[in-house]
């Protein structure tokens, strides 16, 4: 499967945060696919012809949560090395450990600082280049 070197998949159910992320990333030159709930994200992932360069994923989502989406993403051919950054308000250590154990690469707690998030994204994309 082909990796799209310029696309980032964002799954975020808060419309405002989703739009902020889309704006921030597009301003950095990335193409953003935005899903606002788990079922749509799963369907989009399963139908995707290209692998995104990175995924930003909320934990608390309608229908299918972020933990389950990480498992779906990691099980997909060619998606096993895509960097996944969890973006969530869940701050409990057990949630962080669960996300990392499921296959997430990083965990950012909301409210996040935009420049810190962009720095984390650049770090993953540089490592993958």
UniProtKB/TrEMBL annotation:
Residues 7-125 form the Response regulatory domain. It comes from the Bacteria. Keywords: DNA-binding, Phosphoprotein, Transcription, Transcription regulation, Two-component regulatory system. The modification 4-aspartylphosphate is found at residue 58. InterPro entries: CheY-like_superfamily (IPR011006), Sig_transdc_resp-reg_receiver (IPR001789), WalR-like (IPR039420). Coiled coil: none annotated. Gene3D superfamilies: 3.40.50.2300. SMART domains: REC (SM00448). Transmembrane segments: none annotated. This is Response regulator transcription factor. It comes from Noviherbaspirillum album. The lineage of its organism: Bacteria, Pseudomonadati, Pseudomonadota, Betaproteobacteria, Burkholderiales.
């Amino acid at each position: 499967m082909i990796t799209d070197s310029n696309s980032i998949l964002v799954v975020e159910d808060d419309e405002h945060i989703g739009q902020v992320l889309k704006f921030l990333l597009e301003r950095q030159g990335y193409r953003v696919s935005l899903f606002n709930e788990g079922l749509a994200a799963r369907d989009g992932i399963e139908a995707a012809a290209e692998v995104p360069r990175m995924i930003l994923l909320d934990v608390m989502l309608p229908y299918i949560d972020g933990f389950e989406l990480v498992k779906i993403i990691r099980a997909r051919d060619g998606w096993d090395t895509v960097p996944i950054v969890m973006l969530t308000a869940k701050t409990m250590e057990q949630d962080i450990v669960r996300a990392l154990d499921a296959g997430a690469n990083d965990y950012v707690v909301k409210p996040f600082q935009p420049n810190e998030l962009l720095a984390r994204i650049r770090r993953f994309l540089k490592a993958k280049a």
